[in-house]
Amino acid sequence: MPKGNASNAELASIFATMSQLLELTGANRFKVNAYSRGARVIESRTEDLVALALEEGAKKKLTAIDGIGQGIAEAIIEFATSEDIAEHDELLSRVPAGLMQVLDIPGLGPKTVRAMWQEMGVEGIADLKRIIDDGSIKELPRMGAKTIENIKEAMEFQARSGGRTPLGIAMPLAEAVQEELRAVKGVKQLQFAGSLRRGRETIGDLDFLACTTKPDDLREAFCTMEGVEKVLARGETKSSVRLKRDGLLIQADLRIVPASSFGAALMYFTGSKEHNVRLRERALKHDLTLNEYGLFPEDDEDTPPQSRGVKAVASKDEEAIYSALDLEFVPPELREDDPVEGLAATGAGLIDVSDIKAELHAHTTASDGRMSIEELAGAAKVRGFHTIAVTDHSVSSAIAGGLDPDRLRAHIDAVHEADGRVKGISILAGSEVDIKPDGSLDYDDDLLAALDIVVASPHSSLAQDPKAATKRLVSAIEHPLVHILGHPTGRLLPKRAGLSPDMSKLFEAAAGSDTALEINAHWKRLDLRDAHVRGALEAECLIAIDCDVHSEGHFDNLRYGILTGRRGGLTPASCINTWGKAKLHKWLKSKR
Ligand code: DGT
Ligand code: CA
Ligand code: CA
Ligand code: ZN
Q: pLDDT for 413-433, tens place per residue?
């Protein structure tokens, strides 16, 4: 598919990115410089190079331009004809996406960022913040107090550029604020609402609701709490602040409402807008009117009922309002669309964090994880899991320390040996095996058959065209030795879209071959995403929710995977991680 409307600027930015990626991966200077020069040259040209690349004798015409060599000319032609550059995809798959944000911090060059990544395991802003906070950043060369101070300043500045905040960043921040404000004298109720309560994958702003006997105190606490950079509004019922914490800049609203209408306000400000609209329509059909103060009898007056002392039919809690509308309670995660349909399909018995009994996608120090087999097993045991699967990377993921067949054989023995030694949890020998662009797997069948569990995931060529991506993923799903398709699209929030296969074909294949589809719980992935989960369930697929553990903290991302599952209507029965040990192991063995 020719990319007819791509501009020189777009092309230039790809080459500039590639140059940075090359530098981060430690490529030689010549190539790094050639690409960055190429980017500048491309940007400065007035003729349309993408169009030129589709002409007869394109290569000759392109290399005739000073600053464009063979390699770059070929890449431009590849871009013009196929819409992507394989080398670009390959580089993107090797470098953690968060690292580019670190590189974007003013004053941080590729050399320093590479050292942070390779020597301290920094993969994004949160990691950088961690090594600054615990002081380990000082171990890097030329890292004095002044430099560190500058980096901190710059991180805050970068965060200002804004955009929507990933769920996994917004949630801990909102919970911290919630806890602080609940401790303020007079506060009876305080709860975040909005998209965060609905568990959306990204969050625009934070919405808090409160009931208090001392509104002045709460307003004061809100407007002066840690990190408030600017008070945008400070009214009777609504205050707004710009909040800056941990390098993140986000707006937060606080609404103080009467205790008698807390439920109605919580419902209104949880949204979504669409859900509210449906509820109001439904109210009208019942001769009722619904607003943020309550559900009232409809009487055709212009003045709102609450200001005329009209008694609400329901207002104090959400349950009562749904019930007065003849609806079951709709969990916030399902409040995106029609309340009746949404609920009728899946309202009761949605999955919960406490249902999860196994982690089936985890890495150790054998590839790019931070924990040994024993440490991983210990962390899983603490969480009450009956099973942990060790699934290190396969040989193609070289940058992630992927195991060649000999190392994998030794690793299988080490895992089985640990399983015999460690009591109270079952440790499975597995692999996160790369699905190559053509759909073949990274190990031969004999080796795969020696594994207790196989998670097959795409890591490279993630800009592949949809048809090829569908074929690739379907063949992995249908491979008789594969148990789980890991992070099916390979997307990374917020920027990398990942593969866009025909999902219905994937669902059909997965249901037909009894292969589970993963919800990767890392907040950067959430892949399957909510809508995909719903589709998969409609096709009667099995779902796995896994944390893709690389370090102990990753286990805590489980809640984001659960929220995503709930948004898709997931119940425990369809999620293999909730099954008892005997059932899970029997299912695993059915593919051996
Ligand atoms: P966000 O912040 O962009 O991630 O998304 P939300 O859903 O948190 O939206 P936000 O913060 O603009 O408003 C919070 C909730 O308030 C929203 O989900 C529904 C409710 N709401 C806000 N504005 C309107 C409106 O104009 N009509 C209705 N029906 N509801 C609204
Ligand atoms: Ca919001
Ligand atoms: Ca808001
Ligand atoms: Zn993984």
A: 999 999 999 999 999 999 999
Statement: residue 341 has pLDDT above 70:
no
Residues surrounding ion ligand 3 at CB below 5 Å: 205, 207, 253
Q: How far apart are CA 344 and CA 338, in angstroms?
A: 10
Q: How far apart are CA 30 and CA 352, in angstroms?
A: 53
Query: Atom of ligand 1 at shortest distance to CA of 268?
Result: 20
Assigned fold of 99-161: DNA polymerase; domain 1 (1.10.150)
Across residues 436-447, what is the average pLDDT?
A: 97
* Residue among 269, 279, 280, 336 to mutate when testing ligand 1 (max atoms within 8 A of CB): 269
CATH T-level assignment (fold) for domain 353-589: TIM Barrel (3.20.20)
Residue 253 CB–ligand 1 contact under 6 Å: no
User: Residue 547: exposed, middle, or buried by beta-carbon count in 10 A (0-12, 13-18, 19+)?
Assistant: buried
Residue 430 DSSP SS3:
strand
**Pocket of ligand 1, candidates 191, 207, 275: which has the most ligand atoms within 8 Å of its Cβ, to mutate?**
207
The CATH architecture assigned to 8-94 reads: Orthogonal Bundle (1.10)
For residue 100, give the nearest of 115, 114, 85 by alpha carbon.
114
Length of the chain: 592
Tokens representing 213?
């006997």
Please provide the DSSP assignment of 533-568 as one string. HHHHHHTT-EEEEE--BSSGGGGGGHHHHHHHHHHT
Q: Give the pLDDT confidence of 40-61 residue by residue, as tens digits.
A: 788 777 677 888 999 999 999 9
Q: Which stretch of DSSP H or E encloses residue 89? A: helix 86-94
Which amino acid is present at 372?
A: S
Question: Quick one: 47 exposed, middle or buried, by C-beta within 10 A (0-12, 13-18, 19+)?
Answer: exposed
* CATH code assigned to 165-256: 3.30.460.10
